[in-house]
Amino acid sequence: MTGAFHSFVVLADMRTGSNFLEANLNALEGVTCHGEAFNPHFIGYPNKDDILGVSQHVRDSDPMQVLTAIRSQPGVLGGFRYFHDHDPRVLDCILDDPRIAKIVLTRNPLDSYVSLKIARSTGQWKLTNVARRKDAKAEFDGAEFGAYVEAVQEFQVTILNRLQRSGQTAFYIAYEDLQDLDVMNGLAAWLGTPARLEALDESLKRQNPAPVVSKVSNPEEMMEAVAGLDRFNLTRTPNFEPRRGPAVPGYVAGVVTPILYMPIKCGVEADVTRWIGALDKVEPDGLISGMSQKQLRQWRKHNPAHRSFTVVRHPLARAHSIFCRSILSTGADSLGQIRKTLRRRFDLQIPATEPDDTYTRDDHRAAFEQFLLFLKANLAGQTAIRVDARWASQTQVIAGFAELGSPDLIIRDHEMADDLPWLARKLGRLSPGPVPRVAADRPYSLQDIYDAKLESLSRSIYARDYMTLGFGDWA
After folding, report:
1. Which of the chain's ends, N or C, has fewer CB atoms near its CB within 10 Å?
2. What is the Cα–Cα distance from 195 to 28, expressed in whole angstroms?
3. Which long-range contacts (CB under 8 A, 24 or more apart) does 209-218 make?
4. Phi-psi region for residue 405, left (φ > 0), alpha (ψ -120 to 50) or beta?
């Protein structure tokens, strides 16, 4: 087939009208849709043995053979329907190939959910004769519907993001548009085929045309559950932070004890590393660190009973510790260039050198508030300064860990004295040493300057950390 596309895919889900769309596509001369080519339970259609000579057995062993067969039909624009629970091995290939036309079919998820429940109850998935219509009412299940919506939305977001990143566009069509002849012919034009429909397919009938509230046995429960959904995602916490990788070179592993520390920069890293060294009676620099991803996999392979952990800290306490160690101070942990830029461009009122006796508690309170305002702008992508790992949100860092495996245990810094020895005993170290106490911030502690305004500002910056990791007010 010549033209911009060599094949097409209908990205949809069950009960969205995909059968009707396929029937109209197949009515176009030179266009053939081969059903659910990658349904794990059958190939194309139930009771069908193959697609273009490729059997289900062969497809399950090598799904690319089906893709090759469909796009290689001489003089035909071939395609198929793909749902979120179909063979995931081909999704990357489908989405990454700009010559596979993407038709994205959507429907109100409540309508499709109820339709799906009725079809499963009656066993009637297509209707060609209204006289044979089977009637039933669905029982709405709030938890089941929530999971259904989440799966559909995740699939749609995946499609959208992948097409955006590769510079592709899709033909979006809603369930209601399927009855519009002009829209269907617009789809034909977009696909690059000269054929047009004179009328829409009449063989398939809408199975459940009544309002959705009349199609369920418990409409009050359904309406209550749907009312609790945030349709416009008003409560979502926006996240403009760049994605973070797993940062494997920073991991610290025991040389004898199968323990792996995945640090989040929060001011306790040196203390925790010394404690791990004491377990194996080695200095901190004798522990395993600076690993590559390959070396990490080897360490895990050779330590099958390993346990991994990270330590999180209250967002306000963490920000204050960062401010004291890396911004206010000019010592070894100082971010010198960023410090200068904050003083020059963001009017951060801190001394040019180490603070002395003239630097008062009120000065410290005001400067820390200024720093928090900078963090708010920085994490929102409103500054030219990079989002440093020292103040990146802890949830974002943990999400980066997940690329190679999430930590088994997330420990709060104020609970390290109990949780770390417990973990050591689980790994066979029955008499672990005491966990060092986190050093106090200097020249002033957070307790010296804490107030409700600082807490509120911290919550506005690190809302995801507060919510996801369960932090309350610091005081």
Report:
1. C
2. 6
3. 212/110, 212/111, 212/114, 215/114, 215/115, 215/118, 215/137, 215/138, 216/114, 216/137, 216/138, 216/139, 216/140, 217/137, 217/138, 217/139, 217/140, 218/139, 218/140
4. left
Q: Does residue 443 have a cis bond before it (omega within 30 degrees)?
A: yes
Token pair 């309002």 is at which residue?
211
Task: Sheet with 171-174: list strands edge to edge.
Answer: 31-33, 77-83, 7-12, 100-106, 171-174
pLDDT digits (tens, 9 = 90+) for 264-317: 999 999 999 999 999 999 999 999 999 999 999 999 999 999 999 999 999 999
The residue type of 100 is I
CA 256 to chain centre: 35
Question: Rounded distance, CA 191 to CA 107, Å?
Answer: 22
CB count within 10 Å of CB 287 equals: 21
Q: How many CB atoms lie within 10 A of CB 362?
A: 10
- Taking only the tens place, the pLDDT of each residue in 43-65 is 999 989 999 999 999 999 999 99
Tokens 């002009």 correspond to 182
Long-range CB pairs of 441-449 (<8 Å, 24+ gap) are: 441/320, 441/321, 441/324, 441/325, 442/324, 443/324, 443/355, 443/359, 443/364, 444/361, 444/364, 446/316, 446/317, 446/320, 446/474, 448/361, 448/364, 449/361, 449/364, 449/365, 449/368
Give the other-Cβ count within 10 Å of 466's Cβ: 22
What's the token pair of residue 161?
A: 């993001």
**Alpha-carbon gap, residue 95 to 77, rounded angstroms:** 17
Q: Which two tokens stand for residue 250?
A: 């920073």
Specify the amino acid at residue 10: V
- The conformation of residue 311, written as its DSSP 8-state character, comes to E
pLDDT digits (tens, 9 = 90+) for 360-379: 999 999 999 999 999 999 99
Report whether 274 contacts 396 (CB < 8 A): no
What is the helix (H) or strand (E) element at residue 82, kind and residue range?
strand 77-83
